[in-house]
């Protein structure tokens, strides 16, 4: 097995044979699908991850893995989420965008602080 794939299998807590399986994506669990999608993306060695509600429909173990991936990522991770636990455990900068008047007025706040500090000060 390729050394990089072996390390990736370990990081994502899957068997090394996962990469060589004939199993169809539709038969994987939600967590396995997320792991497969992340591993496919990481094989391309991106420098930025843009994630939209990444914690939706995940079991607790996969959520913990997602947090570990975000925290260990060397590049930029920008995500949109309503999951306050994910935000609190992983965000080091908050960009809060609010719609003030229906589709006519908005307000934004940018703070380079942990989420809990942001919540406590706003």
Automatic annotation (TrEMBL):
Family matches, as Gene3D superfamilies: P-loop containing nucleotide triphosphate hydrolases (3.40.50.300)
Entry's Gene Ontology molecular function annotations: ATP binding; ATP hydrolysis activity
SUPFAM superfamilies on file: P-loop containing nucleoside triphosphate hydrolases
UniProt cross-references to Pfam families, sorted A to Z: ABC_tran (PF00005)
Keywords for the protein's UniProt record, in alphabetical order: Repeat
Source superkingdom: Bacteria
InterPro entries xref list: ABC_transporter-like_ATP-bd, ABCF, P-loop_NTPase
Stretches assigned to the ABC transporter domain: 21-56
PANTHER family registered for this protein in UniProt: ATP-BINDING CASSETTE SUB-FAMILY F MEMBER 1, ATP-BINDING TRANSPORT PROTEIN-RELATED
Name the record gives this protein: ABC transporter domain-containing protein
Species classification: Bacteria, Bacillati, Bacillota, Clostridia, Lachnospirales
